[in-house]
Design goal:
By secondary structure, the chain is an alpha+beta fold. The chain has two domains: 2-99, no CATH class; 115-174. The protein is 46% helix and 11% strand. The protein has helices spanning 52-67, 70-77, 81-94, 115-127, 133-144, 150-159, 165-174, and strands spanning 2-5, 18-21, 27-31, 34-40. It has a four-stranded antiparallel beta sheet with strand order 1-4-3-2, with no helix packed on it. It is elongated and about 90 Å long.
Length: 179
């Protein structure tokens, strides 16, 4: 199977492509009197031990080395040249494990409420799952001197999947909290 890379702006799909056989046994493809680049596709190897994502990045680097042209490899693979340069650099410095995307813990926004306040909201919600956000806001202000808007409470509920009364009841029952 071969990939035909076209310098033409529009797709050559479902169009007639002229294939010319050379004297040395190779062939070339032409479309509208323009020569098209032909690259042979190789069967994909067995999945890399770190997964398909790492394997795809390693294959991009290997294709760039094989072709000797990073721009052409980037076009064939479907990524940017900068990505291939980055993959090469990471592969040299850290090895294949460096190409694996590692999820880093999310940073808390400096404008978010303190975690202790958030935990207090969840605790009070689970103690009394029947209260709505306005009632909880008032009780936080009166009893605990914590000033939080009702929309903030609703956002916390949504993030913790406590946004409906049924979900709050289910969670409090799962934690064996007497309602």
């Amino acid at each position: 199977m071969y990939v035909i890379d076209s310098p033409i702006r529009y797709s050559i799909e479902n169009q007639k492509v002229e294939i010319r056989c050379q004297f040395d046994g190779t062939f070339s493809a032409y479309f509208g009197h323009r020569r098209l680049d032909i690259t042979e596709l190789v069967e994909p190897r067995k999945t890399h031990e770190y997964g398909m994502e790492v394997q795809r990045k390693i294959e991009a680097v290997e294709l760039a080395q094989q072709l000797g042209n990073i721009a052409k490899a980037a076009r064939i693979i479907g990524c940017s040249r900068q990505s291939i340069y980055t993959y090469q650099q990471v592969l040299e410095t850290e090895g294949a494990i460096g190409l694996k995307r590692i999820n880093k813990p999310l940073k808390r926004s400096k404008n978010s409420i303190p975690e202790s306040t958030e935990n207090k909201i969840i605790e009070l919600t689970l103690k009394d799952p029947h209260t709505n956000a306005l009632q909880l806001m008032k009780s936080l202000k009166q009893e605990h001197d914590i000033s939080v808007s009702s929309s903030t409470i609703q956002n916390i509920w949504k993030r913790e999947q406590l946004n409906t009364k049924a979900l709050r009841l289910k969670r409090s029952q799962a934690l064996n909290i007497d309602v």
